[in-house]
Design brief:
Elements: H1 3-10, H2 13-18, E1 19-26, E2 30-37, H3 43-46, E3 51-56, E4 60-67, E5 70-77, E6 79-83, E7 88-90, H4 106-113
Parallel strand pairs: 2-5
Antiparallel strand pairs: 1-2, 3-6, 4-5, 6-7
Length: about 120
């Protein structure tokens, strides 16, 4: 079993598909896991040389389901993009429509959809 397969069993699929695992810390009380959004442009922007990665926003902490009796805090940050032709800084919204009726909490869905 690959690490990615294990992560898919433990974490929401949207995280595994859209974010890279950066680091984790474990204490007796909790797991803290940090993720950064992958550097993947939307198809329409991928051909536009004016759209470039422009760092990250701040980490947002979302409490997930406990793992092995420990609180689990997911630290996620979304990538920022710059349109050099207009100076606009933006973030992509992650489509959550396929997850309707799943166990995603409202705070997590809002985070995935938010812009700058």
């Amino acid at each position: 079993m690959e690490l990615i397969d294990l992560l898919r069993e433990l974490l929401p699929t949207e995280i595994v598909d859209n974010f890279d695992l950066i680091r984790y810390e474990k204490t007796d009380e909790r797991f803290d896991i940090w993720f950064d959004e992958k550097k993947i442009q939307e198809e329409s922007d991928a051909k536009n040389a004016n759209i470039i990665a422009y760092g990250f926003g701040d980490y947002k902490v979302i409490q997930d389901f406990p793992l092995r009796g420990r609180l689990t805090h997911l630290h996620l940050r979304k990538r920022k993009w710059l349109d050099k032709s207009t100076g606009e800084i933006f973030r992509y919204s992650i489509d959550t429509s396929e997850y309707e009726g799943t166990r995603l909490n409202a705070e997590f869905v809002t985070f995935l959809k938010e812009d700058c």
